[in-house]
Amino acid sequence: MPNFAFHIMTKPIGPICNLDCKYCFYLEKENLYLGTKHWAMRPEVLEQYVAQYIAAQPTDTVNFAWQGGEPTLLGVDFFRTVVRLEQKYAEGKTIHNAFQTNGTLLDDEWGEFLAENRFLVGLSIDGPRELHDCYRVDKGDAPTFERVMRGVAKLKEYQVDFNTLTVVHRQNSAYPLEVYRFLKEIGSGFMQFIPIVERKTCAPGPDGLVLIQPSFDGEAEVTDWSVEPRAYGEFLARIFDEWVRNDIGRYFVQQFDVALESWLGMDASLCVFRKTCGSAMAMEHTGDLYSCDHFVYPENKLGNIAEVSLEQMVVSAQQKKFGQDKLDTLPRMCRECPVRFACNGECPKHRFLRTPDGEPGLNYLCAGYKHFFTHIDPYMRFMAAELEAGRAPANVMRIVAEQKPPGKAANGGNRSGPKPGPNEPCPCGSGRKWKKCHGAMA
To answer: How far is CA 232 from the centre of its chain?
Structure first.
């Protein structure tokens, strides 16, 4: 049994989807299984997977994640079977299920099932109508916004817990506050903002894929839907500025929560910001296990659960090397970067640029992350200090309300009203010097 908890993104219907999102990197994975007519995970594969996944986890709580493609295409009965199998093999462990969907097929039957079995639903939505429909269209190229909003209404009607996954692309990256405020309006209490970055070749490779991994050294270009580096950093920073003033404790943004972990000296809970990776894998409908959801390529296949146990594949030398390579291939420019502790080179999928010194492995989004992490630094230092002192990090909202934003002060940069000297006691009563307490926000 592995001595660490690991995560698998399960794709019980493979890449098959009822939508044709223009930026989706997974739709073309159908080329890896040419000739397949039956895409649903077969009953014997499903049972093997559920049993092995539960048995291999060293924790008392086991988290399943079901994705695609679009898992609702399998129908509710498939997931009723999933729940029965989980109960059969639980052996006293607590089982949780997360379910990623585009929301277009959610109806009363789904609402009842998801609520009854306490599935956490991740809903894909890219913002208001115009921004969402830029790329999220169906097979007939028709917009999907209205259908997604009907799905949201069903989740609310049946009181299903849901969060939102928003792909940040070339179009919506220019409208951060419109996206953020829209998500709040539809009832999303937890948000993820996922940057889309893809490179494509002029012609498919031997595996039939056009969207290639970072190690590809042939001719390739960044797709026109990919978010630009600085734009992504500014997108996050603009949302952060509104969140830190009004919404801490009311709305949760994954990138902000994970950043606070880093400022507290903790290991990031999100794999892309850890020093090493390899504990988050992807399971295809056939039982094939791959090193990562973003590395579903033939060379990253670890095996099949019908031939090799899940436990063996998770701790295999191949997977250990995959995870360690993230750290070992980090360029010197990144190793010496002041925000490395929060970034750690981000996802290997995006590390296809060269540094100014010509070293490979620089992240395409580097400029954006450097801008974002530098921007939030004083706020994060303050919130981390509050937590360490046993106080609520939400206190930062009061401090921000009392002061002008950094770099935005009136009167030539002098904030209105008296303030203590840097070494004088902070008026909040903490007993610390102003420069080490609320003065950090000045």
So the answer is: 14
Q: Residue length, the chain? A: 442
Q: Residue 292 is encoded by which pair of tokens?
A: 């990562």
Distance, in Å, from the CA atom of 223 to the CA atom of 172, rounded to the nearest integer, reads 15
Q: Is 325 a catalytic residue?
A: no
Could you tell me if 147 and 123 are in contact, meaning their C-beta atoms sit under 8 angstroms apart?
no
Beta bridge partners of 423: none
Residue 407's Cβ-side half-sphere holds a number of Cα atoms within 13 Å equal to 4
Query: 3-state DSSP helix/strand/coil percent for the chain, to nearest 5?
Result: 40, 15, 45
Structure tokens, 163: 């969060």
Alpha carbon distance 26, 69 (integer Å):
7
**Residue 13 Cα distances to 200, 234, 306, 341, angstroms:** 25, 36, 18, 37
| Residue from 133, 241, 247, 293 carrying the catalytic annotation | 293
User: Cα(97)–Cα(163) distance, rounded to whole angstroms?
Assistant: 13
Instruction: Report phi then psi at 108, rounded to 5.
Output: -60, -40
Tokens linked to 171: 């179009």
Helices 176-185, 229-246: axis angle to 10 degrees equals 50
Q: Mean pLDDT for each 10-residue chunk of the chain (442 residues)? A: 90 97 94 93 98 96 97 98 98 97 98 98 98 98 98 98 98 98 98 96 85 84 96 98 96 98 96 97 98 96 97 97 98 97 97 96 97 97 96 93 52 37 59 60 49
DSSP for 275-321, please give it: SS--SEEEE-TTSEEES-TT--SGGGEEEETTTS-HHHHHT-HHHHH
For the whole model, what pTM was predicted? 0.89
